[in-house]
Specification:
It is built from 12 helices and 10 strands. It is α/β, with parallel strands linked by helices and 327 residues long. Strands 1, 2, 3, 4, 5, 6, 7, 8, 9 and 10 form a 10-stranded mixed sheet that branches.
């Protein structure tokens, strides 16, 4: 017969499991009780930064605590993702990431210090977007075909900027270079903001970047947009052709999503997902995202995880085609 002390030993695992299960709802109700640090892997002014600040300002209200923006540019967003992977898994450090550091980096970087599916916990994908190919107004090319012809005539003379080595913008440019059969030179920056500044200053000639970051400069005449990168023309700007209409087979899209460190409690992830999804589905936020060229999502953590798996496989093929790899 099991008695006193031994009865407790026998039922201890069950008791602990029940206590843990009961603690999850309580944890979700209590969280958050202090400000939340929001890591952004690029300098201010780029599409990731703009998206993070747009959604973040409404998350303040939804969560009842301020989000403190922390821009940590470097290594195509991978610096911030490394900081996230090493942060305390308590829900008080999260990140608004792009596919550069989550889906591209595992294929591109030999010395990556985190694995997106093992060290990070998906919360929700805000949305996906096309990129846009923009050039300095002084570049004598008004179409993608003219840009390709120019690059062929002047091999190595056209420089293309990016938000950093390994970023979506970098691989989008390398993929364009490969499929178009041209010789253009990569110039990496610590974010789309600095890249855009130098492009407008004429230090570089072209850039493939988020539509949201570039369109204001295009409308002001500081840049010229030649094409978008998706399979179809952009709903917000149907007059812009796709690169694929000229360079057959070309298609690149980007996305923005919230992640936390792995081992963040499920109740906290659920609370964050609920808040993000609610913000993304607000009519005013949806309208603003669409204006920025972003198709809103607000999907579940599991759906986001599956998307990351598929994207890692997709970008593996692009990295191999472009023959791009960095430390």
């Amino acid at each position: 017969m099991t008695t006193g002390k031994w009865k407790w030993v026998a039922y201890a695992p069950l008791a602990l499991a029940l206590l843990a299960a009961g603690a999850q709802p309580a944890l979700a109700q209590a969280y958050p009780t202090k400000p939340i640090r929001l890591l952004l892997g690029y300098a201010p002014g780029g599409p990731t930064d703009l998206t993070g600040r747009l959604v973040g300002q409404h998350l303040n209200e939804a969560l009842g605590q301020p989000l403190v923006m922390d821009n940590r540019p470097g290594a195509g967003g991978s610096l911030a993702a490394t900081l996230l992977a090493n942060a305390e898994p308590d829900g008080y450090t999260i990140m608004l990431a792009a596919n550069g550091e989550i889906a591209i980096a595992p294929n591109l970087r030999r010395k990556l210090r985190y694995h997106p599916l093992k060290d990070l916990a998906p919360i929700s994908r805000v949305g996906w977007s096309q990129l846009v190919l923009v050039v300095h107004p002084g570049v004598p090319a008004k179409t993608t075909a003219e840009l390709v012809a120019l690059a062929k005539r002047k091999a190595g003379a056209v420089n293309f900027a990016s938000a950093g080595t390994g970023s979506t913008a970098h691989l989008a440019g390398e993929y364009f270079k490969h499929l178009a059969g041209i010789d253009i030179v990569h110039v990496p920056y610590k974010g789309a903001g600095p890249a855009l500044s130098d492009l407008m200053g004429g230090q570089v000639q072209m850039l493939i970047t988020g539509y949201s970051a570039a369109i204001g400069h295009v409308k002001a005449g500081r840049l010229r947009a030649l094409a978008v990168t998706g399979a179809k023309r952009l709903t917000a700007d149907p007059g812009l052709p796709t690169i694929g209409e000229t360079v057959k087979g070309y298609e690149v899209t980007s996305w923005y999503g919230f992640l936390a460190p792995a081992r963040t409690p499920g109740a906290v992830i659920a609370r964050l997902h609920k808040a993000v999804a609610a913000v993304v589905r607000r009519p005013d936020v949806t309208e603003r995202l669409v204006t920025l060229g972003i198709e809103p999502e607000g999907n579940t953590p599991q759906e986001f995880r599956e998307q990351i798996k598929k994207e890692i496989a997709t970008w593996s093929r692009v990295v191999k085609l472009a023959k791009a790899q960095v430390d």
